[in-house]
Amino acid sequence: MFSGEGKQRGLLRVGKVSVWIAGIFVVVTACYLLIGRSQLLDVEEVKVYGLHHLTLDEVHRQFGFQTGDPLLSVDKELARNELEELPWVKSVEIDRSWGGTIEVAISEHKPVALVMTEPNHWALVADDGAVLTSGLTAPPELPRLSGVRAAGSPGTYLSSDSSALLALLNAMSLELSQSFSSIRREADGDIVGTLVSNQEVIFGDDQRLAAKIIALSAVLDHLDAENRTDKKIDVAVPEVPVVRDE
To answer: Are 212 and 238 in contact (CB under 8 A)?
Structure first.
């Protein structure tokens, strides 16, 4: 009999604890609904950082929320995904404070080259092959990649045949990459570049690109010291670069 009474008292205690837990859950939920989604905690201000090519209007249209909305109704993950749909957006960080301020830090893609979309129209592309713009008739001065498939619409990526050309540019210093007016894939598969000085650089195949860049830098330094502008620089075999004035 004693054992049965003890068991019953234990069950009563468990029941009371369950009621308390349920009550706390109800209170927390009510507070969330009545306070978190009310005007007592709404979006007072949205601060956006990191814009260089995008405009505030373009960004605001992607938010999915606005000032005056309940703060806890802001879905940060959804807003991040929507912003990353913009071609220029590389990554997004969103923070919100209980004071009602939402801070949006945007990292934009950096254009590194141009790829043709149609005759005389060139799209800006990022280092990972992201197409940033539609075709421009008066693009900025960046290396033009040719002998590859045309760029698609903004937000898409270049075809894989552009990978080696982008890898070559990405491995260069900024100063060296900016000294190229174009880099192209020849019909035989070799990579050839043209410097803004009209000197031609023969890289050969896709292999050992880093070594070829080192060889090219050394050759250019030597030619500069000698005040020479030889027309062809062949670094296809990086250990034995060849310079020809023809």
So the answer is: yes
Alpha-carbon span 7 to 171, nearest angstrom: 74
Are 129 and 149 a contacting pair, CB within 8 Å?
no
Rounded to two decimals, what is the model's pTM?
0.77
Judge contact between 1 and 8, C-beta under 8 A. no
Sequence-distant (6+) residues with CB within 8 A of 184 are 145, 146, 147, 165, 191, 192, 193, 194
**What contacts 156, CB < 8 A, 6 or more positions away?**
130, 131
Cα–Cα distances in Å, from 237 out to 20, 191, 194, 202, 208?
78, 13, 18, 10, 9
User: How high is the pLDDT of residue 14?
Assistant: 52
- CA-nearest of 88, 133, 80, 86 to 105 is 80
Q: SS3 for 174?
A: helix
Instruction: Read off the amino acid at residue 46.
Output: V
CA–CA separation, 69 and 55 (whole Å): 22
- Consecutive sets of 10 residues in the chain, 246 residues long: mean pLDDT of each? 55 55 56 51 86 92 81 84 94 87 93 96 96 95 96 95 95 95 95 96 95 96 92 96 89
Rounded to whole angstroms, how far apart are CA atoms 104 and 56? 11
Concatenated DSSP letters for 39-65? Answer: GGGB--EEEEE--SSS-HHHHHHHHS-
Q: Which of 109, 93, 103, 101 is nearest to 48 (CA)?
A: 103
Reported in sequence order, the residue ranges of 97-197 that DSSP labels E, i.e. its strands, are 101-108, 111-118, 121-126, 144-146, 180-185, 191-195
